[in-house]
Amino acid sequence: MKHVTYIHEHLNWTEWQWSDKKLLPLVSRVRILQGHLLGKLLTLGFDLNVEAQLDAVTLEIIKTSEIEGETLNDEQVRSSVARHLGLNNASMPTNTRDHPRFCVTAI
User: Fold this and answer.
1) Is residue 43 within 8 Å of residue 58, measured between CB atoms?
2) How far is CA 17 from CA 10, 22, 42, 61, in A?
3) 10 Å Cβ neighbour count for 61?
């Protein structure tokens, strides 16, 4: 297993500095690769904005229910949210409605 050295383990960690000359090429390369990946996803038909909205709403519902002491099935919540967003959710599990509070009424 590779040992990871954390920043606070360095003797001069409070004098930490970075070099724009070293970082900018790396950050630029990551942004280019990110653009390629996003482009490929879009050509495959992924609507990233809708996917992000689906993930955010699903997570919000699940976390809110946990605060209230209830546990919901992640896949069922995602399926219900997808249906309310008008997404094709054929690959998602169907909502059994076994849980009395499991119903997304407003998004």
Assistant:
1) no
2) 12, 11, 38, 41
3) 20
Cα distances (Å, whole numbers) of residue 62 to 4, 11, 57, 66, 105: 34, 43, 9, 6, 14
DSSP-derived 3-state class of residue 50: helix
CA-based nearest residue to 96, from 75, 65, 71: 75
Which stretches of the chain score pLDDT less than 70?
Answer: 89-107
To which residue do tokens 């879009």 refer?
Answer: 42
Q: Which helix (H) or strand (E) holds 65?
A: helix 48-67
- Give the model's pLDDT for residue 89: 54
Q: Is this structure's pTM higher than 0.70? A: no
